Amino acid sequence: MPVAYLLLGSNLGDRAALLRAAREHLARTAGTVTASSALYQTAAWGLADQPAFLNQALEIRTALTPAQLLTACLATEQQAGRERLVRWGARTLDVDILLYDQRVVDTPTLQIPHPRLPERRFALLPLADIAATVQHPGRGCTVAELLAACLDPLAVTRL
Ligand code: GSY
């Protein structure tokens, strides 16, 4: 069964409860959650003037195609009351697909691997907890190697 890696993020409301509810929703609708990273408190990337995020990476074994998994991720954001008001703005929940097996997907609505993964410490650090030796298709190196090379200066703290 395909293995996908997701990143959960929240910087509005009860962030830890929102991430927990997201994990449970994904487990009901998208597949089996087989690994979870620690929670990380991370400074906001993009727009600086907003609350800090909680981020967590998940490993999920799924029978869904990448497009179906995206639909499940968007539905998970919806159940958390996510509103899309400002690009890079504060949000109750964000669910991004980081990796899906060694697949490369490039459509107008979905890009896998996530195109900004190599430059985001807030994604690489949680992902390295559960997928350090997984290869990034296209970059030809592992998640741990991407993290070691990442120049993102934003603070990421393990809780
Ligand atoms: O792209 C995911 C949502 N997001 C985040 C995030 O999850 N964590 C941090 N630290 N900053 C972010 N900026 C955006 S947008």
Describe the structure.
- The chain is built from four helices and ten strands, in the order βαβββαβββαββαβ.
- It has helices at 15-29, 66-79, 121-131, 143-149, and strands at residues 3-10, 32-36, 40-42, 53-61, 94-100, 105-106, 111-112, 135-136, 141-142, 156-158.
- The chain is an alpha+beta fold and 159 residues long.
- It has one domain: 2-Layer Sandwich (Alpha-Beta Plaits).
- 30% of the residues lie in helices and 27% in strands.
- Strands 1, 2, 3, 4, 5 and 10 form a six-stranded antiparallel beta sheet that branches. A two-stranded antiparallel ribbon has the order 6-7.
- The protein binds 7-(2-hydroxyethyl)-8-mercaptoguanine (GSY).
- 7-(2-hydroxyethyl)-8-mercaptoguanine binds at residues 9, 42-46, 53, 55, 88, 94, 96, 122.
